[in-house]
Amino acid sequence: MAYSGPEFTPFAQAVAADFAKIGVKVSPTIKEKSVYLSDLLGMKWDINLQSLGDATGDADYVLGRLYTCKAERTGYCNPKLDGLLADAAAKTDPKQRAGLYAQAEQIIWNDAVGMYPMDVRISYVWRGSVKGFTPSSNYQPDFSAVSVS
User: Fold this and answer.
1) What pLDDT digit, counting tens, does each position of 105-126 carry?
2) Is Signal there in the keyword field (predicted)?
3) Would the pTM of this model clear 0.85, i.e. be above it?
4) Residues 127, 130, 136: CA angle, nearest 5 degrees
């Protein structure tokens, strides 16, 4: 089980302990970011832990980028999923897109291709004197309105 940030250590240890209960030995391994990325893209992993921020706010940014056959990012290929993701990306009606992405996410979950078991919390502001900071859901903080009093 590979991961690149210390924020994953407690979770990785808990997952390894749960696997051990059913007789599966898992070795959590923290890797330096460049090695982690090289191994990730080279498909040199069995279980991979990572945080996925959505820089665009569009479901296609993560789902269409990672879970299509053409992406070759997970070792998984499902033409039905590809069709749903392509249809969703082509729609302009938000309700139609949401319905198609919900179907796609159900396939991803049921086939255990990807799961999102936790929300990683990252501290950007540490003092009470910092004002105007609003956390971002895409892990890209905006400090343009921040002031220190």
Assistant:
1) 999 999 988 877 776 667 777 8
2) yes
3) no
4) 100
